[in-house]
């Protein structure tokens, strides 16, 4: 028998509660609960025994994965698209999500039927984009609709191999209330689409807009439902980074790098130097070059630090590309072991090209940039570094040092400050054990 029940959902994280709450117990957001009427059925169906099978009897079919022609995309997905899987791709409006998906559609349309469902744009707008990208239509079908039941019917009838939904925030089902983009709508439409995709062994891409804070607009519930979650992000104006934050079918270490050009997204074959700035003369004070890892690739970055007298009574750190806690920790290590003070200073940190770096290897180049800014002495030209800092001021070993050194050598650097020795390189690799000896080598 069907029963109507009232439930409350947090619009921030999708948490479900039977009573209204002022503060979400799951994510801590205030006033985020909205009321929804749901119909629950309690059928007394008989449960049959389903026989389990031995692990040895399970055969993995290779044909379940297929590649696109876009290497960067395949790499991020863990080797290509999986049949029956669902992928959520989030990014700010205008970043190039629709462009990327249309290019993916183009790259597989020869052997696979594509259905591009758009609730965001008209068929004309999509056609204009395709023309700009030099994509011809055969093999790609377009359905401009937001009505969920109509969309499901088309999928059942046309049985495409790749389904693209642009975007999940526009879907609306008769079964799940009347606010498009609400938790109920998202939960219902996405779960049904995932189920349908599995049934016909297709691959499903959901596009989702991301808010400024970096959260996929609407609840996080969709992230939990899908197999893979990708974020499309930008750094320097043209450069786009595709990251995987969840992947049931591969590692989440890989990133895909593209450049947004006149004719769409172009893969960046050798991204190692794209974030470096070319200068006629030497580095100004406060700038240091580091070799960092993005996924498994080495990328050289320029860390910029500015330290100025504190404007308030306490010193503050302004840093959105490097974690503020890391900056604070490295500054404290320098105070203790480098003999300089930051307590009356505001610290601004930036990375050229706007790339965000989380890897521990940037501790050392960050410390050197902080030191150079505070003392107003520039770092000598041609020096690059990598290393993690311990609270005791020691420089600790980091992964893939040989590859970092090799990339720096290729990019024309002369001296590499490294936590360990590296053989077989023409670069002058100086093994530095603590922050004090590193400082002694840069000025
Ligand atoms: P789009 O894919 O529409 O972004 P999203 O779906 O994430 O909102 O791309 C938006 C921007 O990309 C738009 O401002 C124009 C630019 N662009 C190019 O520079 N080159 C191109 O070939 C295309 C198609 C778009
Ligand atoms: Mg779009």
UniProtKB/TrEMBL annotation:
Organism: Thiospirochaeta perfilievii
Name listed for the protein in its UniProt record: DNA repair protein RadA
Taxon lineage: Bacteria, Pseudomonadati, Spirochaetota, Spirochaetia, Spirochaetales
Claim: Nucleus is one of the keywords in the record: no
A GO term from the CC aspect: cytosol
Single GO molecular function: hydrolase activity
Binding of ATP, residues: 91-98
InterPro entries: AAA+_ATPase, DNA_repair_RadA, KaiC-like_dom, P-loop_NTPase, RecA_ATP-bd, Ribosomal_Su5_D2-typ_SF, Ribsml_uS5_D2-typ_fold_subgr, Rubredoxin_2
Family statement: Belongs to the RecA family. RadA subfamily.
Residue ranges of the TM segments: none
Domain notes: The middle region has homology to RecA with ATPase motifs including the RadA KNRFG motif, while the C-terminus is homologous to Lon protease.
Entries under SUPFAM superfamilies matching the protein: P-loop containing nucleoside triphosphate hydrolases, Ribosomal protein S5 domain 2-like
Residue ranges constituting the RecA family profile domain according to the UniProt record: 62-210
GO BP: any one term: recombinational repair
Keyword Magnesium: no
Keywords: ATP-binding, DNA damage, DNA repair, DNA-binding, Hydrolase, Metal-binding, Nucleotide-binding, Stress response, Zinc, Zinc-finger
HAMAP family cross-referenced by the UniProt entry: RadA_bact
Role of this protein: Plays a role in repairing double-strand DNA breaks, probably involving stabilizing or processing branched DNA or blocked replication forks. DNA-dependent ATPase involved in processing of recombination intermediates, plays a role in repairing DNA breaks. Stimulates the branch migration of RecA-mediated strand transfer reactions, allowing the 3' invading strand to extend heteroduplex DNA faster. Binds ssDNA in the presence of ADP but not other nucleotides, has ATPase activity that is stimulated by ssDNA and various branched DNA structures, but inhibited by SSB. Does not have RecA's homology-searching function.
Annotated motif RadA KNRFG motif, positions: 246-250
Residue segments, region Lon-protease-like: 346-443
